[in-house]
Design brief:
mainly beta; 5 helices; globular
Length: 369
């Protein structure tokens, strides 16, 4: 796999972690010298909090281990099929170009059936504009289910171990809510688990609730229309699998976000999915950059990497009780009789400090299902 492709896939995985991950991407000004490829990822979301977010980066393929550099952006404009538009401000707290609706502009409607696009002006004056992308209503999630399987696997030392694997599946309608056809669906996941601190001699240890975005390299995608349609009104799709670990020892909440996609966005993410699942055989298509729906108004021949797309979201969750996965031990580092090592703070000494901003000692309101 070439180094440009590797950088691109890493960027796409970061984008897919979750909508929450997106708002942490920085658009800090940087030099535009040596620009090789402009990469623009934009997303309009209709959900509990409707929002639009865009990040712009560039690749420098001559540097093997370089990361995507941010490009200075001057203005971002969201427009619809009627040529109505609204400027998207840079929200410093989100470290990117971000706006919420209707708090930001109640006169610019975000509704299913409308088509939207994005225009991005860089600091040096270059302008990039996306094609329109239709926002489709999302079917409701019927249920989330899980199954446990006992499997053999190898550890880092090559030893064969027996352990449990948990597989999550979503049960959902495959039809668009207006009955016009089969939905294209994409899923994002996050989790919260409980951990009780276990400092030696502690009588009333603190309890933490630690959250993280589930990084799923398989990119769970249901290409309804492009797959030729599905006669069933309800489908069951496996979306994530992992080894059962200490996260499940005191309770584990699995959160699922389901998004609707246009045919245009589905085709793009299908190509990304194929790249992520490449096996490196001679029968596969050669690697290449994933070109999306942006074009340069200054140079129509320029290839622009990335995509702008619009989705509606719906959410659901499932609580996994410790009894559901067997008798698990909580995780704590082994106590070593070494003053230097013992002085280091670990997750069982101060779980909020070690885990960071996605941690709290306050029980979530929906904890336990």
């Amino acid at each position: 796999m070439d180094k440009v492709r590797l950088q691109h896939i890493i960027g796409l995985l970061l984008l897919m972690c979750s909508a929450g991950c997106l708002n942490e991407v920085s658009l800090t000004p940087d030099t535009d010298k040596g620009l090789d490829k402009v990469v623009i990822m934009g997303k309009l979301t209709l959900g509990d909090t409707s929002s639009v977010l865009v990040r712009v980066t560039q690749f420098r393929p001559r540097d093997l281990f370089s990361t995507a550099d941010p490009i200075a952006v001057d203005e971002v404009i969201l427009f619809n099929q009627d040529d109505e538009s609204v400027s998207v401000p840079a929200n410093v707290s989100r470290s990117g170009f971000y706006a919420e609706f209707p708090e930001y502009d109640a006169n610019f409607a975000i509704i299913p059936g409308n088509a939207y696009g994005l225009e991005v002006t860089l600091r040096d004056g270059r302008i990039y504009r996306s094609a329109l992308d239709t926002l489709f209503a999302v079917p409701n999630i019927v249920d989330i289910d899980f199954e446990l399987d006992r499997v053999l696997r190898s550890d880092v030392n090559g030893n064969t171990l027996e352990g449990d694997v948990i597989t999550y599946s979503v049960l959902t309608s495959s039809r668009l809510p207006d009955g016009s056809g089969v939905a294209n669906l994409l899923w994002n996941m996050s989790s919260t688990f409980k951990l009780t601190e276990k400092e030696e001699g502690e009588i009333n240890p603190d309890t933490c609730y630690l959250s993280f975005y589930v990084r799923n390299g398989n990119l769970p995608l249901f290409p309804g229309r492009l797959a030729g349609g599905n006669p069933e009104t309800v489908i069951k799709e496996p979306i994530y699998q992992e080894a059962v670990n200490f996260y499940y020892a005191e309770g584990y909440q699995f959160f699922l976000t389901q998004e609707s996609l246009s045919n245009q966005a589905t085709a793009y993410w299908q190509e990304v999915q194929q790249l992520l699942n490449r096996e490196g055989t001679i029968a596969e298509d050669p690697p290449g950059l994933t070109i999306g729906n942006f074009s340069s108004l200054d140079d129509p021949s320029e290839e622009v990497v990335g995509l702008f797309y619009a989705v509606e979201q719906t959410k659901s969750d499932i609580f996994i009780h410790p009894n559901d996965v067997g008798d698990l031990s909580n995780f704590c580092p082994i106590i070593i009789d070494d003053p230097e090592v013992a002085s280091q703070i670990n997750i069982c000494d101060d779980c909020v400090f070690v885990w960071g901003k996605n941690s709290t000692k306050i029980k979530p309101s929906n904890w336990g299902g």
